[in-house]
């Protein structure tokens, strides 16, 4: 398998694992908080039906904070990369200089 396919497979598997963990984290905490605060939960309640989802013991607020922080870091990393690229890239050559170089090359016979 090529390096690109291996990388793609790793990204796919990692994203699916994160999605599954995130989903269990959000719904597990939500369901268990609802069950703990419900006064009269009947036998046929949806909350009892969803009680099989494990409570990971991690506050659900982090499920909001962490993705927002990651998106912010990702966007700022792109901005930093663009800034570094702009900083280290030399300025473009003026068109007049390019035209002179092209005329000189034509006179020397390089483009015949």
Counted beta strands: 0
Structural class, please? Answer: mainly alpha
Question: Per DSSP, what share of the residues sits in E-state strands of 2 or more residues?
Answer: under 5%
Count of spatially separate domains: 2
Low-confidence stretches: none
Q: What string, H for helix and E for strand, traces the elements in order?
A: HHHH
Q: Assign a percent range to the helix content.
A: over 70%
Radius of gyration, CA atoms, in whole angstroms:
29 Å
Please state the average pLDDT score: 77
Distance from N terminus to C terminus (CA atoms, Å) equals 46 Å
CA-based shape: elongated
Number of helices: 4
Largest sheet data: none
What is shown here, in short?
It is elongated, with a radius of gyration of 29 Å.
Would you mind describing this structure in some detail?
The chain has 112 residues and is mainly α. The chain has 2 domains: 1-57; 59-112, no CATH class. Helix content is 72%, strand content 0%. It has helices at 3-37, 46-49, 61-88, 95-108.
Write the layout of secondary structure elements.
Blueprint: H1 3-37, H2 46-49, H3 61-88, H4 95-108
Keywords:
112 residues; mainly alpha; 2 domains; 4 helices; 72% helix; 0% strand; elongated
């Amino acid at each position: 398998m090529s390096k690109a396919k291996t990388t793609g497979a790793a990204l796919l598997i990692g994203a699916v694992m994160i999605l599954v963990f995130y989903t269990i984290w959000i719904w597990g905490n939500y369901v268990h908080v609802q069950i703990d605060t419900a006064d009269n939960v009947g036998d046929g309640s949806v909350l009892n039906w969803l009680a099989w989802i494990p409570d990971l013991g991690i506050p659900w607020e982090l499920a909001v904070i962490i993705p927002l922080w990651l998106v912010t870091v990702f966007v700022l990393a792109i901005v930093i990369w663009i800034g570094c690229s702009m900083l280290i890239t030399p300025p473009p050559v003026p068109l007049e200089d390019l035209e002179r170089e092209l005329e000189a090359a034509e006179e020397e016979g390089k483009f015949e």
